[in-house]
TrEMBL record:
<feature type="compositionally biased region" description="Basic residues">
    <location>
        <begin position="171"/>
        <end position="183"/>
    </location>
</feature>
<protein>
    <submittedName>
        <fullName>Phasin family protein</fullName>
    </submittedName>
</protein>
<dbReference type="InterPro" id="IPR008769">
    <property type="entry name" value="PhaF_PhaI"/>
</dbReference>
<feature type="compositionally biased region" description="Polar residues">
    <location>
        <begin position="18"/>
        <end position="27"/>
    </location>
</feature>
<feature type="compositionally biased region" description="Basic residues">
    <location>
        <begin position="1"/>
        <end position="12"/>
    </location>
</feature>
<feature type="region of interest" description="Disordered">
    <location>
        <begin position="1"/>
        <end position="28"/>
    </location>
</feature>
<feature type="region of interest" description="Disordered">
    <location>
        <begin position="145"/>
        <end position="183"/>
    </location>
</feature>
<dbReference type="Pfam" id="PF05597">
    <property type="entry name" value="Phasin"/>
</dbReference>
Length: 183
């Protein structure tokens, strides 16, 4: 029986400790909820104050900025305009020089490309145009003599102007011998 009394005492003691723990937990939870509510209300209040005082602060800062700008303009005065004019003239001169330099470089490049193409005996646009004119003249003579070749459309002439002539493909030695033999 003594063991029964001990187990009963243990049960009542554990039950009362559970109840106290539960009561403490409820109190802690209640305090946390109240604390969270207070933090929320403080945040809402701060937001309201910031809205009300923010516009006033902004307007004050704008006024201070205007006064500082006026003071700076008075101190800098003519110096700033003179400096601005000097910078603009220097930039203008630099642009002119750069433009002249690019023009000269472009001209030198075009001349070198032209010389290289001549060394390679690539016909120029003028050479091809003269060749087309000569072919047209020969076609006209053939028509007069009675052998009517089909006339080339303008599109074919442009394509011919883009393609290198068969004479350009020949080696210089063949071309030179041909020129001597022709007269």
């Amino acid at each position: 029986m003594a063991t029964l009394k001990k187990s009963a005492r243990k049960k009542t003691a554990s039950a009362s400790s559970n109840e106290t723990l539960q009561a403490q937990a409820e109190q802690l939870s209640k305090r946390l909820g109240e604390s969270a509510q207070q933090v929320w209300l403080a945040g809402v209040g701060a937001f309201g104050r910031a809205q009300a005082e923010g516009t006033k602060l902004f307007e004050t800062l704008v006024k201070e900025g205007l006064s500082l700008e006026q003071i700076t303009r008075k101190t800098a005065g003519g110096k700033a305009q003179a400096m601005r004019d000097a910078v603009e003239s220097t930039v203008g001169q630099a642009r002119e020089r750069a433009s002249d330099t690019w023009d000269r470089l472009e001209k030198v490049f075009e001349e070198r490309v032209h010389r290289a193409l001549r060394r390679l005996e690539v016909p120029s646009r003028e050479d091809l145009s003269a060749l087309i004119d000569r072919v047209d003249a020969l076609n006209a003579e053939l028509r007069k003599l009675g052998g009517v070749p089909a006339a080339k459309p303008a599109r074919a002439r442009k394509a011919a102007a883009r393609k290198p002539s068969p004479a350009a493909k020949k080696t210089p030695a063949k071309r030179a011998s041909r020129k001597k033999a022709a007269p």
